[in-house]
Design brief:
nine-stranded antiparallel beta sheet; Uridine Diphospho-n-acetylenolpyruvylglucosamine Reductase, domain 3; globular; Vanillyl-alcohol Oxidase, Chain A, domain 3; alpha+beta; Uridine Diphospho-n-acetylenolpyruvylglucosamine Reductase, domain 2
Amino acid sequence: MDNVITVADEVRSAFAGELIGPADPGYDQARRVHNGLIDKRPALIARCHTVPDVADAVRIGREQASEISVRGGGHGVAGLAVTDGGLMIDLAPMKGIRVDPGRLTVWAQAGVTWKELNRAAAGHGLATTGGVVSSTGIAGLTLGGGEGWLMGKYGLTIDNLRNVEVVTADGQTIRASAQENADLFWALRGGGGNFGVATSFEYQAHPVSTIHGGLVVHPISRARDALACYRDLTSSAPDELTVYFNMFADAAAPRDKYVAMAACHCGDPATAEADLKPLRQFGPPVSEDIKAMPYPVMNTLSDAGYPRGALNYWKSAFLRELSDGALDAMTEALHRCPSPMSGLGIVPYLGAVSRVEPTATAFAHRAPGYSLLIVSQWLDCSDTDVNIAWARETFEQLRPYLAHRQYLNNLPADDGRVARDLWGVNYERLVSVKRRYDPDNAFRLNHNINPGAGEAAR
């Protein structure tokens, strides 16, 4: 990578974006991502404003860099958006958004966050499934699958994807959709950043403006009964109602532990009142704040729990069922958690998500069930080892209740080495697509699909 720095002046004259090296102002800010645990130093950062900038950056990286990373929103917990010593292609300046209310579509570039997309779409009374933390970038979340508040009714983010513009490893710009480069379009819906640099996305949007939702909080002593309520509610809930289950401590009073059910109902207000009644009647709760609100507001309710710069280490899994044994293990884990910023969350894979065939997209996790996220989060670097150990130990204690599946977007960098846990029956086909579009594995700083892999890699 030293060669990139040596010829930097020559490269700068031809590159229309910004090239930032370690000695340049703004370098430290540009290399930082949401997860404060990540402290990598690229040899060069290419901040791209246009698609030709991205194509040029890919060529620079292929010719002169030890490795290439791609940064969209910079929210990925694994920190794979940043290279140590290579070239980081930074898409954050690419903020274009277009809403077409007639076609019910939203087009957005890869530097857009869900807060920005949701706000633009809401201006036309529209929404699509996106992340539950509004500062998350659209690109990484989409390529990994895309959980969100509207998933019960409209499926994952990838189920609402119409086309993607991609700069491939050879520097070419192509479009992937059901009609064009259909094999690539299939792979991009759940295969992560393995196949090129996605520069823009077009989504199917839906008439969603006001939703009914919010948080109902109960003491940890009521955890078992709360889970039973949650299990019954989600198993019979209409598609319009998505409810997450969370276990957390009070950051202001860490000894106080809670469970919460966070609900979002995107259907008719009269129906919402009836559908949410079991949730509101269970208790009494410590607090309850279910109300009508604009959809973009719903998408910000988790923001305070994930502050930028906090140190994060996560574990991802899927629960076979919501058993009492799993709940006991989760409750015990929360009580011994070393940080009040940590917790556990359950996301239902029910409704529209589970009605898509596992092979229809690269995202194979379509069986009805629940996604589990173990969030370890802290502020002091000296506490790193104990907090990472807590997440790993909690995962191992929950292993008897887990399915052999993992959600790509929630994995730390040291996870995801067993391909079948990420892509299941789709892995061999993904290898084939990788060989076609990135045979040299230029885009390997990710949860990687090795183009040289075969059945033995599973």
